């Protein structure tokens, strides 16, 4: 059974940084795409970044340069580093995954099959 578990959320002051983690388990495919997205109350979910099994990354234009997605294959973990946190970064952050039979280009809004429950990030005033 595929599972994705996010962690690393919390309350942070504006201007600070945070690294979110997404630990995956239960999959056997060699190829995958894992993305991060977020959702604030009353807003649609926003795709942020994606990384594939070859280490290729894609970012939403609105976060490129401030967000960094990376992975540690030995730990089956994908990270999202957020710098210069702003009030509008307050949201529930989700990671999601899709598994493939071959390397496939993916992006932050690619259709995902598996989702974590999210980790909450709150930017203090």
Q: What's the SSE blueprint?
A:
Layout: E1 3-7, E2 10-12, E3 18-25, E4 31-39, E5 46-52, E6 57-59, E7 67-72, E8 77-82, E9 91-100, E10 114-115, E11 119-123
Parallel strand pairs: 2-11
Antiparallel strand pairs: 1-3, 3-8, 4-5, 4-9, 5-6, 7-8, 9-10, 9-11
List SSEs in N-to-C order: EEEEEEEEEEE
Number of DSSP E strands: 11
Low-confidence runs of at least 5 consecutive residues: none
Structural class: mainly beta
Range of strand content: over 45%
The percent of residues in helical segments reads under 10%
Gyration radius (Cα, Å) is: 14 Å
The number of helices is: 0
The average pLDDT value, as a whole number, equals 95
The CA-CA distance between the termini, in Å, is 40 Å
Shape: globular
Question: Which features does this protein show?
Answer:
globular; seven-stranded mixed beta sheet; four-stranded antiparallel beta sheet; single chain; mainly beta; 125 residues; 51% strand
What does this protein look like?
By secondary structure, the protein is an all-beta fold. Helix content is 0%, strand content 51%. It has strands at 3-7, 10-12, 18-25, 31-39, 46-52, 57-59, 67-72, 77-82, 91-100, 114-115, 119-123. Strand 7 and strand 8 form a beta hairpin. The radius of gyration is 14 Å and the shape is globular. The protein starts with a strand and ends with a strand. The model has no long low-confidence stretch (mean pLDDT 95).
